Structures are given as C-alpha cells and as structure tokens.
Amino acid sequence: MSEKPHLMNMSAGLASVGVAATLVVLKLWALGETHALSIAASLADSAMDLMISLGGLAAIIYAARPADEDHHFGHSSAEDLAALGQALFILVSAGVIFWAGLRRIVSDAPVQLMSEGRGMVVMAVSVVLTLGLVLWQRRVAARTGSRVVKADQLHYLGDLLPNLGAILALWASAQFGLQGVDSVVAMGAAVMLGVGAVNIGSGAWHALMDRSADPEIVAGIAEIARNWPGLYGFHDLQTRTAGSQLFINLHIELDGNQSLHDAHAIGAGLKRALIEAYPNAQVIIHKDPVRD
What's 63's domain CATH number? Predict the structure, then answer.
C-alpha cells in the first residue's frame, strides 16, 4: 500500500475515533439531563463504537508494521483478544440496560423523563455526525479498498436505528407523556447490542482457535488456483485468520520436468493473484511435482 492510501485509511480511523468520543461525551450529558434509558442504550452503543474504532485504528497502524523476530506472523491476534474483551463488556452492558428497562415497565412509579428537547437535539447531532462519518468512510474505502474501513462503515450505518429510536422515545414522552416508549426502545437496543456482542465475540473466539476462513473466501482461493495457468492441480489448502489478517497455505502440483525458474514464476504469479484478491493475506505456496 502506498503512503497516500495508508494516510487516507488513517484519516478514516481517526475520524471514527473522534466521532465516537464526541458522541460518548454528548450522550453522557444528555443522559444526565433526561434520565432516558433509550439514551443510555445509545450511549452504550457509542461506547462500543469507540472501542471498536480504536481497535480498527490499531489494525490500520499495525498493517504498516512488519513481523519481527518474536512474532513471525505479525501481531494481528491482539485484535481478536481485544474484540473478545469488548464483546464481554458489551454483553454485560446490554444485560444491565435490558433489566433496567424491564424494571421501569413493571414499576408502579416509573421514572419521569426530563428535558426531552435537549435530549432530542443531542440525538439529532449524533445522527448528523454519524452520517458524515459514513460518507467519508465510504469515500476512503472506495479509493483504498481497506476492509477495516469498510467494516467500520457498515457498523456505523447500523447505529443510526438506535439513535432514531431514542429521538422517537423522547418525542413520545414530550408530546404524549408516553414514558413506556423509552423503556421499550432501550430494551430493543439492548437486544441489538447483545446480538452484536455475541457475533463479535464468536468471531474473535474462532480466530483465536485458528478456525479456517469463511467458506466463501476458501472457495474463492480454490477458484483462483484451479484456473491458474501451469497448474495441474492443488491440495492441502489451509486457511486461518488473526484479526484482519488472512493466512493461506497451499500445495500446488507442477510439471516436474520444467526449470526451477519456470516453476517459481508460476507460484509467484499465483501468490500475487491471491494477494490482489485478498489484500490482507499472507500466502505460503509449496510446489510438488504432479506425479507426487
């Protein structure tokens, strides 16, 4: 990756962290002003965003660092360890918010929301900032092809629904005195947080356990190898992931009578094609004579 795309990816990562940190501060203030659980749920979501954005920024920085003598395959597993810790934190937060919402619904004396107008202003600012970030991330991802930026963009797109739900809850409270809408929105957002945490945690766990890559990726690798000129076949295709890194091991079958130079050229060309298709991949190719 040239310097300019790397700097663009860095700008997207820094923008993501900056927006998430700003939203955490704004929503903390709004929570204190309104006592709305829907804002608490949105705050927890923004806190998750901040942690994930920090992890994404670290991934972008680490992508520019080569492996060292103690870590021959790089340091990308640290992303999975961080993601697993994040998932546990998010799951606990979602449980607390869901339980608080349930208690408010069944309580004989529900908590009165206050300063709904201020809360709606904060959530509207959240929507505008999130939309601006998503548009910038989309532009960066289109130019650099960064999978980290693309994943972060999809994550922030999913954040718009809880923010809009919080605005709806505050509006219903201010206009009609419907306090229960706040609890329902908060419980719905807590469920979304919980599902997201399980998905993040399971993905990190599988990566730490050296599970193979997504079947679609494995099929894509096989398709490239199957159609590569000079190959009589391939076997022992093995993959694993660590953070944003993909590792590919592959045995290819070549004409044993051709020169070492020609055999190397075929293998090197296949390696370049795989890296072009999967930019975050590290590829190891072993060459076997076709008769073996």
Answer: 1.20.1510.10
Number of domains present in the structure of the chain = 2
For the CA atoms of the chain, what is the radius of gyration?
A: 24
Question: Hey, what are 269's tokens?
Answer: 């060309």
For the stretch 105-150, pLDDT in tens is 777 665 566 667 788 888 889 889 989 998 998 888 777 666 557 6
- 132 and 191: one domain? yes
pLDDT in tens, 239-276: 988 766 789 999 999 999 999 999 999 999 999 999 99
255 and 200, same structural domain? Answer: no
What's the rounded Cα separation, in Å, for the pair 247 and 281?
6
Q: Are residues 185 and 275 in the same domain?
A: no
Same domain for 55 and 165, yes or no, is: yes
Q: Give the pairing type, strands 245-254 and 233-242.
A: antiparallel
Residues 53 and 31: their CA atoms lie apart, in Å, by: 22
Asked if residue 6 lies in contact with residue 112, where contact means CB atoms within 8 angstroms, the answer is no
Tell me: do 77 and 55 sit in the same domain. Answer: yes
| Judgement on whether residues 150 and 236 belong to the same structural domain of the protein | no
Report CA 58 to chain centroid distance, whole Å: 12
Is 148 in the same domain as 181?
A: yes
